[in-house]
Design a protein that fits this description.
213 residues; alpha+beta; Porin; elongated
């Protein structure tokens, strides 16, 4: 199942890449539009070594029109996964935190429904949370990780300024932490809430500009 889902995502992303020439003019037109702020919160439900985990994400960026968003994100792992380490009487809790560059392209827009292709590249650290002899918190096996996470999402705008959605994707570890025994490669099930600042800006932005001027 995981292999099938991975192949499906690769197919979708490569198909989008293959259409870059055809979309070039459209993307160029979008980038010429006046950018508006964008903010969203995502919860990724996923697995590490077969155990359920969550990754919380806060993302901010700019939207060009209604179909293209670019920005930065911050992500942190929420789990109770632990690893046994020699010299410690208790298992140590797994942690992971990373920042990301992300892009989202709306490939379907009809009524209040949106189809979105989000892709993000993450860079950060994974480690085990421990304490030294004095009881101070330390990070054991602290090392760099690089992640690639393509997904596909469906979003519904239930008000002019807030959209909620769900999606599916896959976490691909371009660089893993060799000291951790857990398997981070896994499917992602995403729940997202998006504040549609671009809608607010298009409706009320001129009032702010008039006030500034």
């Amino acid at each position: 199942m995981r292999i099938f889902c991975f192949c499906l995502l690769v197919y979708v992303t490569t198909t989008v890449d293959a259409q870059t020439i055809q979309l070039k003019e459209t993307l160029g037109q979008l980038l010429k539009k006046k950018p508006a702020p964008s903010f969203k919160w995502d919860t990724q439900n996923s697995f590490i070594t077969g155990r359920s985990v969550k990754v919380q994400s806060l993302k901010g960026g700019v939207s060009f029109g209604e179909h293209l968003t670019l920005g930065l994100g911050y992500h942190w792992l929420q789990s109770d996964i632990k690893q046994n380490v020699s010299g410690y009487s208790e298992s140590l809790l797994l942690k992971m935190r990373y920042g990301s560059l992300f892009g989202e392209f709306v490939f379907y827009d009809k009524g209040n429904w949106l189809g979105v292709l989000p892709v993000q590249l993450g860079y950060g650290k994974s480690f085990l949370s421990a304490k030294d002899e004095q009881g101070n918190a330390i990070k054991l096996y602290h090392a760099t990780v690089i992640l690639y996470e393509p997904t596909i999402s469906i979003e519904y705008k239930f008000s002019p300024w807030i959209g909620v959605g769900a999606g599916y994707g896959y976490r691909i570890m371009l660089k893993n932490n060799p000291d951790l025994t857990q398997n981070f490669y896994a499917p992602l099930y995403v729940f997202r809430v998006r504040i549609l600042f671009e809608e607010l800006y298009s409706k009320y932005g001129h009032l702010l500009e008039d006030e500034i001027n």
